[in-house]
Design brief:
The structure is a single chain. Helix content is 23%, strand content 30%. The protein is α+β, with helices and mostly antiparallel strands. It starts with 7 loop residues before the first strand and ends in a 9-residue tail after the last strand. Belongs to the NipSnap family.
């Protein structure tokens, strides 16, 4: 083994409980690395507008790191397919308060589209 990473996440107050149920055929995972100390403000800004956003599509998870690579914010959105993703994201962008005003906090952003494995409790 050349490299290994471990991370422990804590759910944001508005993150739904992670339970075995199929939410989508694909999941979009956003990982943001933010300035040290900015996670509480980021969560506060998300909390102010997440209710409007989840009326369009559900949030699978909103987590921040507490161990490992610190200062990371991860949010996961389920979709039926890429077409639904495009449609719902366009609808969300019409909201006056979405996305939350957090751009100044970002140092790095990674986005992934994943398909759950056949044995996944989210499949």
């Amino acid at each position: 083994m050349v490299n290994q990473q471990s991370k422990i996440f804590q759910a944001a107050p508005f993150s739904p409980p992670l339970e075995p149920w199929k939410m989508g055929n694909i999941y979009e995972i956003h990982t943001y690395t933010v300035h040290p100390g900015s996670i509480p403000t980021l969560i506060e800004r998300w909390q102010d507008c997440i209710e409007d956003r989840i009326k369009i599509s559900p949030l699978a998870a909103g987590w921040f790191t507490t161990y490992g690579s610190l200062n990371q914010w991860v949010h996961i959105w389920p979709y039926k397919d890429m077409g639904e993703r495009s449609k719902l994201r366009a609808e969300a962008m019409k909201l006056s308060n979405w996305p939350p005003a957090t751009r100044e906090m970002l140092l790095h952003q990674e986005n992934s589209i994943v398909v759950p494995a056949s044995f996944s409790p989210l499949h």
